Amino acid sequence: MTSSAVRRWAWIHKWSSLVCTLFMLLLCLTGLPLIYHHEIVHALGNDAAAEKVASGTPRASLDQVIAAGRAMYPNKIMMYMSQEADEPGIWNLTLGDHPLDPNYKPIAVDAHSARVLAEPAFEGGRFLSLMFHLHVDLYAGLPGKLFLGLMGLLLLVAIVSGVVLYAPFMRKLDFGTVRRSRARRLKWLDLHNLLGIVTLVWALVVGATGMINTWAEPLLKVWQVTEVAEMLRPYQGLAPAPATASVQLAVARAEAAEPGMKVGFVAFPGTPFSSPHHYGVFMRGDSALTARLYRPVLVDAQSGQVTDRRSLPWYLVALLMSQPLHFGDYGGGPMQFLWALFDVATIIVLGSGLYLWAGRARAARTIKADASVEAA
Amino acid sequence: VKLWAMPVLLGLLTAAGLAGALVGDGVWDTVAALALAVPVAVGAWHALRRGSGTKG
Description:
The complex is a heterodimer of chains A (376) and B (56). The longest helix of chain A is centred in the C-terminal third of the chain and has 44 residues, at 332-375. Chain A is of the alpha+beta class and 376 residues long. In chain A, helix 5 (141-170) packs antiparallel against helix 7 (200-213). In chain A, strand 3 (105-110) and strand 4 form a beta hairpin. Chain A is elongated and about 85 Å long. Chain A has eleven helices and eight strands. Chain A has an eight-stranded antiparallel β-sheet, covered by helices on one side. By secondary structure, chain B is an all-alpha fold. The radius of gyration of chain B is 14 Å and the shape is flat. The relative contact order of chain B is 0.13. The chains are: A alpha+beta (376), B mainly alpha (56).
């Protein structure tokens, strides 16, 4: 590489990193507890446990489950009900004043007895809620998310330019060399290069999928105005009618329509995952891969009939696949722990980068001062 | 070639680990975790060991 090319890449690396580093440090620090979100919720006693039942105990009708939740808040409406793949004994209900209510009430209902188990703390409790918002939207809603997505893009630029610069810096060194006996700056430069290159692919994947996750709302909007609008054509001109159809029946019909799949969540009319006229019944498979790839079945919320079902478009598949790859929640405890270690290594790369830049600025000032003294 | 051999190897192991756990559960998760552990271990070993030589 010519020295002018190196200078150009160094300029790109410096500025893309400088702009995003403080935000990336924030994301790495807040992301660390979020990796252990479930464990922390459990340790704080903020989660619900299903009642113990003998195997073969019949499950309660979903309409009873919903009634139990609504009895807690008679003036609120259902937004979603969902079930985690590894906890089929609990239905997680969210109720709100309207279908987009950000201050929804979460309620855990036992899937067999239809008794309310708990009202889980909002967003996992005060600490996790703080970590979550600092990590996701800086308490600024969609603009905050998109801003962090832009910072993620700069991170990707910084990583790519950093890889380009790895060659000229490491040409004369063995892999993994850390020069400790010389200046402190050299040691941190070597550590920056070493940890940067070993975390390269992880950081690229987590950075890129994080950026995609910030686009969730716009992507759902696109789906709404294209595919959902198309599915709604028969309803043109009809005012939204109250949802009267049995959810139990709607889910049973959806399961009959998609053999081999089970319900993951139900989106109630008016939410971004359904339409004003439908229950959106989102089905999932039971393998590691298909459990993530939901298939929506739209059930008319008045007649209870399946009106449409189709695969999700590619951009929502990309969004759904981006979630596990960003969260690191798909490979059990060992993967969670590795996620935390990669995260800590990334913090060191960011911190050492900042240190090297600050040191360089100081070094440059000293040289300039010397030069002006000589000139005088 | 020598400069990039190790980074490319570690990058491929990371990619395989990230993708492998997505494909299946059980043994897939174990193999994926082992693949992901290699770059972490290599990074930690070089970062923490005392004294390392240079060519130049």
